[in-house]
Amino acid sequence: MKLxxxxxxxxxxxxxxxxxxxxxxxxxxxxxxxxxxxxxLYSLLTIVQMIVLGGQPTSVEEAFRLLQTNRTVALxxxxxxxxxxxxxxxxxxxxxxxxxxxxxxxxxxxxIILAYVGNTLVLSTSTALSLIPLSxxxxxxxxxxxxxxxxxxxxxxxxxxxxxxxxxxxxxVLLQAGAVLISIAMLRGGAFSRFTAWLGxxxxxxxxxxxxxxxxxxxxxxILMATAGPLYPIWFFLIGRGLLxxxxxxxxxxRTQSELGTT
Length: 263
Description:
Blueprint: H1 6-12, H2 22-52, H3 60-69, H4 71-77, H5 80-85, H6 88-100, H7 105-123, H8 131-140, H9 144-158, H10 166-188, H11 194-214, H12 218-228, H13 232-251, H14 257-261
Helix pairs in contact: 2-6, 2-13, 3-4, 3-8, 6-7, 6-10, 7-10, 8-9, 10-11, 11-12, 11-13
């Protein structure tokens, strides 16, 4: 028995592929939609932060000084907000997988696996908070030998952060590859517009290439990242809007046998 009419079936996938009750599916889509909107806000604030406060400190000594003089600004520039919002990707990709599996099960499943593994690898490389005790010890140090050792330890931490470590780079590649794949899956399903799908393919594709070539061609990588960056707020808005629309459609799906008998 079909749970939804032809119009909804085209947008949400065949009814017999669903594993969630309509109410659960609606809740999942809402969670994913609001998570996408939260990532949209983070993207906009990050752009403002880069313009007003600047990017990552260029040296360990600068990071230590910032942590002593203005810890909030220091943690912002050391990408602590990025680590705090990255778990939202789990919710967004779970919602996207659930929305797209009816029309592109293999692609959406592979996409969520790549994204989850990649996101976890990136999260495991955060060093912003680890620099705080080193900064405190550096400020209290009374001789140059101790300061030199603390600087060396800080440099080792910064070399293993979310932008430079091998794990983070591999995680970024997997996450962006998963995002490209989920965007390709959108082309086969009707839940999202083709513009949303192609924007995701282009945006995440640019970021994927930026990670791959940035080590060898830093200037080219910086250009690719700067090109992809402003597209993120648009994509997150479209994803959030699409998921919330799907949630409203699931709200109209009959949930009981008696309701099914009356439709």
